[in-house]
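re the bet — no i am not wrong, look at it urself. input seq straight from the record:
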Amino acid sequence: MLNHLHAAGRWLFRKGSVVLEHLSDNMWLVLQCAIAATLAWIIAGGLVKDHAPFFAPIAAVIALNTVGGERGTNAVRMLLGVVIGIVVGELSIALTGGGYGTMVVAIAVAMTVGVAFGAARLVIAQAASGAILTLAFADGQVGMSRLTDALIGAGVALTMSQVLFPARPAARLRRIETETLQEIVRLLNATGHALKEDEDPSLSTVDRLSALSRPMADLSRAKETSHRSVRWTTARWASSEPLEYEDERVDRLIILSESCLSLARTTAAMDKEERQRIASVVWEMAAVLAVLAGDLTDREARQRAVDLALNAAQPFSESSVDDPVTAAAHLSVQMVATDIMLFAGVEETESVVQALSGEDEELWVPHPRTEAWPPWLHRKPSVSGLRRAFRRRRR
């Protein structure tokens, strides 16, 4: 009975932690949507009298409720779809006066127009929604107030997402990096357990690959969209160093994940005695990555991870074995440690190699770059401003 209660308590704690993490990650988005919807309602109600401006807050929420780097594109897509739906709905009312048959035709026509233009699914869905809402609330009356509401809602969303509070692409990359590190930790822990229990570690690797593929795909997609999203927001006024720094970390993390997979594969081919010996090292590497995943903005955590990885891998650089499988596994340990240290922030590969061989006793990790936010409060200096500062210094 006590064991069941203990297990239930652990399950509730894990689920509670996940819920709190989701709330923490999305609370700012929820607050932004609520503020934008209210502002759109107030503005639309003040500009156009004697109507319920429901299109404005709906448009604002739909435009904002997406991944940070895609909000501007999402707002434009949403607006295009709503405009198609409203125009089709208004024309349907003008020609037929409304009714169930008109609703069917208007929805079909609005979606067909979106498909004909090769629009995204979001645009097609919004075209149908715009036609539905127009016919449902128009009471047979033609009017352009609904189109005005949609424009106001999209304008408020664009102002919030592109000007006042643009996305923080470097912070978003760090969040996905953390998820990726956590999946790699699970992979290495499962591999270490299989090695210790004399099971086939390759089965654990296959089981964890699908879970690891999702954050890796998210990383690649976020890296592709990050620079494009910054170009059209006030974030372009701030320094580009934090984003460039995280771009390099993403590349390092991809290489690190491949090294960890190689370690899992090579250890699977070792004999029973060697598996038992190397299982603890695999767990050590998992613990090092857990330290990193705890807080990627903390320089001290990065430094501690570098020190732990170095201590764990140094004995394997000094050992010489005749068995090629064991030698490959030892080399994989060194590669994982090397990639951990480079991802953590050590700038020179040569320094890592020297430290592993014992020639360099200490590796130093610089502070990670962080974004200025909001960016319009921390504008990067212009070229003319730098020239003036240089002249003053020379005087």
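see?? Confidence is low (pLDDT under 50) at residues 382-395. told u. also The radius of gyration is 28 Å. so pay up
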